[in-house]
Amino acid sequence: MCLGISVLGLAQAPPAVAPVAPQAMPPAAAPQAAVSLEQAIQLALAHSPLLQAAATQVPQSLAQETTASLRPNPVLAWDALYQPIFNPSLFNRNYLNNAAEYDANLSYTIERGHKRQARMAAAREVTALTRSQVDDARRGVEFNVAQQFVAALLAKSMRAFAQQDLASWQNTVAVSQSQYAAGAVSEGDLDTVKLQTLQFQTAEASDQLGLEQALSTLRQQMGFSAVPANYAVAGDLAYQPVSADLAALQALAVKERPDLMAARQGVIAAEGQLKLAQANGKRDLTVTGGYTHAAGISSAAALFSIEVPIFDRNQGEIARTAAAVTQAQDLAQAANQQVLTDVATAFEAVQQGSRVVQLYTSGYRSEARQALTIRQYSYSRGASSLLDLLDAERTYRATETGYRQALAAYMLAVEQLKEAVGTRTLP
Q1: How many domains does the chain have?
Q2: Burial of 378 (0-12, 13-18, 19+ CB in 10 A)
Q3: Are 294 and 306 in contact (CB under 8 A)?
Q4: What do you get for the CA distance between the two ends of the chain, in Å?
Q5: What is the CATH number of the domain that holds 326?
Q6: Which pTM value belongs to this model?
């Protein structure tokens, strides 16, 4: 049974007319675009504004690396002292050479304790942390798209089944009308059959609405400009068993999960901040070279200055960053435990979903279909009551609906397992 419906636009040929003037051909309807799951994920990654906003944190962090690598600027100071501003008559070469004073100094701060190297290392570690956080945001986008794509596949399957079921019931209505004309069924039974058609039509309309809503939500995640409004989802609900064992999946998740990598990188970044705080506790040396002209004599000077760390040795920031390292280590340990729990929970959901799907495929679907076929045949021959037919129809519809929902739940559990492991390719 084909659950997908492909719509191809057909160009309409214009009617034959006398060649009076050139006639424009009506534009052909564009084919309906079909998007696969992987295509939907790639479109979402390329067009998600939230993900793009998160990705801008990486160049911001790279700019911080540039800032951290900058060296102190030298300081140039110049002064002219004892200028006879209020006695202009004294402005002569003799006074300016012998009475006025001129000084020029060039100072440079020498950073001690390897501050610059510590700043650069800390900035690089923050960039690595930011990249892992962006990767984790990308993982969330992938799962959200996959979740909505599975919902669209379920809505597509339910709409196709509702159309098929409605067509089958309309055949039953036609049979009932023939039996009524032959006097084999009462008018009340015929009215009951006709009224039952309303449920099938309502279900078909509801499933059509559900499909449109699912496609609209999925299109929002992919980007409205990425796909046309009349696009469709490619593929159908399908059961693909997962053969990997729990231990292998957990080992892979410990290596692949970007949020766990971010937590580990957070420990490294915290340790870098501690090293930077310790380096900042070392006081810098300022070296000054000066030139002075006073009393007709030119002289040079060399000055050295350094702060004496008697009270402030940056001990408060050192203590704070040391505590932050412990905090980051605890968070990394909690993240590792959360990853293992997520994989175990998702793996169990996959196993349970697989068992439910296999229950339906073990014979319940075929039995429900066979029971309905028998009731339809018996009813058309007058050997079965209308109530028996309605009961078989409800059972068949409930079985097929449950099967499709079980397939969707299983596919969603597989996508959740991929998110828990941190990779789109399971071993």
Answers
A1: 1
A2: middle
A3: no
A4: 31
A5: 1.20.1600.10
A6: 0.79
